[in-house]
Design goal:
Blueprint lengths: L2 H13 L2 H7 L4 H15 L4 E2 L6 E2 L1 H28 L5 E6 L1 H6 L1 H7 L1 H4 L3 E6 L2 H9 L5 E6 L12 E15 L19 E6 L4 H12 L6 E7 L2 H9 L5 E4 L4 H6 L3 E2 L7 E10 L5 H13 L5
Parallel strand pairs: 3-4, 3-5, 7-8
Antiparallel strand pairs: 1-2, 5-11, 6-9, 6-10, 6-11
Length: 304
């Protein structure tokens, strides 16, 4: 039996709708239904009367709900006590973020908080978007940083998870220059000589951004995948070695563009603008977090 099954069950009891409860729990309706069925199998009784509309709890379901809510409350209270004891002393934050954000954005962002808040200590966990969302939903972090594009939204309930735009970035095609300082590999390439692509994996967020950008092009580029990775920093290393072209966040290559070590592999038509957002669980409140959130909202580019 898994705790998320109990949370699903309680949510369903509150909403009395499989579709609304599944949306709130950030899972497909079919997946949500399977988890409710798994819980019923574990209990050994039907908890939901599916013959009524809206669905209601069976007598067994009402009995189980009373115990389930009490058990969850005790578990979460105990977890809160343990996490408080494990926190870094002083003003601190638990942060989950993508690898690129953790490496290139967060150090300067945390340092910039000092004039307003003094020293802010942070436990930063670099990970992929999926695991970051899981950490936020499960209450394992106070802030989650992620890139965002309106056509590739994160499936988070906006009523429960607030966000603020803290930066803007651009995915741009980049390559090593040749001896004449021109691009070694220039988009769109040709069928006879397709460009070697240093690509993101298809399931990564930047991989989805790359696919969206290429789909938008009126003239399809001629590309062949040369290397592949989830991490922008890995792609950057390959591009610096002259292995091909890659779409890299501009924020990660500002120095190399300025020095001429890297150059754009195409015009701005091949670029994709993205936001950098920070998310928090609206129910996770503290005086420091609320004050910080107000400060970030005032500084947000989206508010200007």
């Amino acid at each position: 039996m898994e705790i998320k099954w109990i949370e699903d069950f309680i949510t369903l009891a509150q909403y009395q709708s499989f579709s609304r409860a599944a949306e709130f729990r950030n899972v497909t309706q079919s997946g949500f239904s399977r988890r409710i069925q798994s819980l019923e199998q574990w209990v050994g009784a039907e908890l939901i009367d599916r013959s009524s509309f809206p669905p209601v709890l069976t007598p067994a379901g009402r009995l189980f709900r009373e115990t389930a809510e009490d058990v969850l409350a005790k578990l979460f209270d105990t977890r809160a006590v343990i996490r408080t004891e494990q926190r870094i002393e002083g003003t601190s934050l638990q942060i989950f973020a993508g690898h690129t954000i953790a490496l290139n954005f967060l150090p300067s962002w945390l340092k910039a908080l000092a004039p307003q808040f003094g020293e802010v200590r942070a436990r930063v966990t670099p990970t992929n978007v999926h695991d970051s969302i899981v950490a936020l939903v499960n209450g394992n972090c106070e802030l989650m940083f992620s890139y965002h594009h309106p056509e590739l939204p994160l499936h988070l309930d906006s009523a429960k998870y607030e966000h603020i735009t803290v930066g803007l970035d651009t995915l741009m095609p980049t390559t090593k220059p040749n001896r004449r300082s021109a691009p070694e590999f220039r988009l769109p390439g040709t069928r006879q000589n397709p460009l070697p692509l240093i690509s993101y994996s298809k399931t990564s967020y930047f991989g989805r951004c790359q696919a969206l950008l290429l789909k938008r092009q009126k003239v399809a580029p001629s590309l062949r995948v040369h290397y592949e990775s989830d991490m922008a920093e890995v792609l950057k290393k390959f591009v610096l070695e002259g292995e091909g072209v890659a779409w890299l966040p501009k924020s990660t290559i500002t120095k190399e563009l300025g020095s001429g070590e890297l150059v754009p592999a195409g015009t701005s038509a091949w670029n994709l603008d993205v936001e950098l957002r920070v998310y928090r669980d609206s129910s996770n409140r503290s005086d420091f977090l609320d004050t910080l959130w107000h400060h970030l909202r005032a500084l947000s580019p989206a508010q200007k």
